[in-house]
Design a protein that fits this description.
disordered N terminus; mainly beta; Immunoglobulin-like; signal; 14% helix; AMIN domain-containing protein; single chain; four-stranded mixed sheet
Length: 128
């Protein structure tokens, strides 16, 4: 049985080499995907937020922080490592550009006195 598997793989390898096919370069769809969690926490009072990946809008919502938990919204995206995510905020009028990074799958956003802060981390934020 092992020789058939080896032969099958060898035949595939020979055909790939003969036809010039290469599987070394992965396309966006073939790259391993990961979950990116965007946590909108303190200070949001109804701001409109849009999230874009490769120029395509993937989420739009209004963020309103719950005083009991300190959380406004969590958006989970399933994306390949290395993708660029753009988050547009209505107030303050700004955009944040993020590269998807498997070592930091959690990103928090908070507003304090009109100043937006962003923090990347490898641990999931906790709420009450």
């Amino acid at each position: 049985m092992a020789s058939r598997v080896f032969f099958g793989f060898g035949l595939f390898l020979i055909i790939s080499l003969a036809t010039g096919a290469s599987s070394v370069t992965a396309t966006t769809e073939e790259r391993s995907k990961m979950k990116l969690e965007l946590h909108f926490t303190e200070g949001f009072s109804g701001q409109q937020i849009s999230i874009h990946v490769n120029g395509r809008t993937v989420a739009e919502f209004s963020a309103l922080t719950r005083f009991q938990t300190g959380l406004a919204h969590i958006e989970v995206l399933d994306l390949p490592d290395g993708e660029e995510v753009v988050i547009d905020f209505s107030d303050p009028k700004t955009s944040v550009h993020l590269d998807v990074d498997a070592s930091h799958p959690f990103v928090t956003f908070a507003l304090e006195h009109g100043v937006l802060t962003t923090h990347k981390t490898n641990t999931r934020p906790g709420y009450l």
